[in-house]
Amino acid sequence: MTFDRRGRHGFFIDGALREPTGSERVEVIHPGNEEAVGSIPKATPDDMAAAVAAARRAFDEGPWPHTAPAERAEMLSAIADGLEKRLEELAWLSTAQNGMPITLARQSQGIEILRYYADIARDVVWEERRQGLAGTGLVRRTPVGVAGLIIPWNAPSLLMNKLPSALLAGCTVVVKPSPETPLDTYVLAEVLDDVGMPPGVVNIVAADAEVGQCLVDDPRVDKISFTGSTAAGRKIMAGLAERIGRVSLELGGKSASVLLDDAPLEAALPATMAGACLNNGQACIALSRVLAPRSRYDEVVETLGAMVGSLPVGDPFDESTFVGPLLNARQRDRALGYIELGKAEGARVVTGGGPVPGRDRGFWVQPTVLADVSNDMRVAQEEIFAAVISVIPYDGGDDAAVAMANDSQYGLSGAVWSADPERALDVARRIRTGTVTVNGFTYDVGLPFGGFKQSGIGREWGLEGLEAYIEYQTINLPDGL
Ligand code: NAD
CA-to-CA distance for 354 and 366, rounded, in angstroms? Predict the structure, then answer.
């Protein structure tokens, strides 16, 4: 199969690809070898304004917010079917754009999320009569309005964490993908066209942060759902405060894999490694801190170091690759900078620690294990966004492990390991993080996902993910109605 590497034209606005208002273009670069894999127009504030206008019109005047939820669910299923037919192309585009290993790219299109929300539509109570203190009310789940969905570059499924629930709720949307990874959303636009999505319900303008800010600042937008860095999330939230704009934030993480002193290392270390190196380490849920009891520290460091050192690193299109390149020179330099910082702070490089030998083109960093890290070092506190694992010893039993796991500005993900699952569950309950797995590293779109602390606000997935796009309306009813 060969795929289109040529440029894409226009932006998907009001149901069709519209001419861009500017004349500049942006090249999309494959991070494995720095070759161009496509290009798109460079978006301007006018393009974004046109997309917002279309979404606003579709919400205020179009059929979508008033369509029966069952019909909206049918549309989600049709989109899922359309994307599924083009899965290989979508996976290829994902790998081409951001270097995600191809096996992961096939699993990361988020098609199951569309199906999940299509399925739960019938279980949602969209409107119910409820007895209050003084009388009867009709309590309604109505759409929040026009939603701006701002997506980072690290995984296509991050759009599907937002789009299906927003559409099921009855919102109209403006999707803003990163300019580094826009090409897959042109396939989505074709699928939306094929399935007959009403014009203006979904509009897509891949744009940089500056034009993205125009989406945030536009008073016609009721809600922003953002995934990306905590720094950008903070700025977006501040911008929305002015007009009390609704906001959901999925931000960074520095999640801990907590090994209790009886942890089954033969299961814990491979899963921790997979969780830390997932998507080349460019995952908000990455298990980038490993907390090990002092009594087993040397064993953990040695075993994990050997495992990470033998991970298949290479061409992300190769089916056997587990770790590919980082997105761009900025992300590579950032990761290498953190490794140097760790060394300066007193950490020891057990494996990796530099660029991948023999890879002159592209943005390559070896998967790295740092030992002798203490939890107050910057490499233990800041999100590196690469396959760089800090192994941190703790003394003093489970209480000390809990305190260390919680000693973070973040609280997104995590794992707790013990031969006694009840004991691990007890520890898991005390960890201030949005998702934590007992004896595993699991993510389930049927259950809510999101961050504590500076990892974000709000939840995606599950019924809670739908709530993010719902505004409750209460209609007080007169007697007899
Ligand atoms: P970023 O947060 O700057 O950008 C993410 C997305 O938000 C992009 O689409 C970007 O164009 C957009 N954006 C940024 N600022 C915006 C603004 N003010 N208004 C509207 N849109 C805006 O992330 P980045 O620069 O691509 O990466 C930097 C760091 O962010 C990474 O190293 C990593 O630590 C973190 N990151 C986290 C996640 C995550 O899933 N939690 C994803 C991507 C990046």
Answer: 6
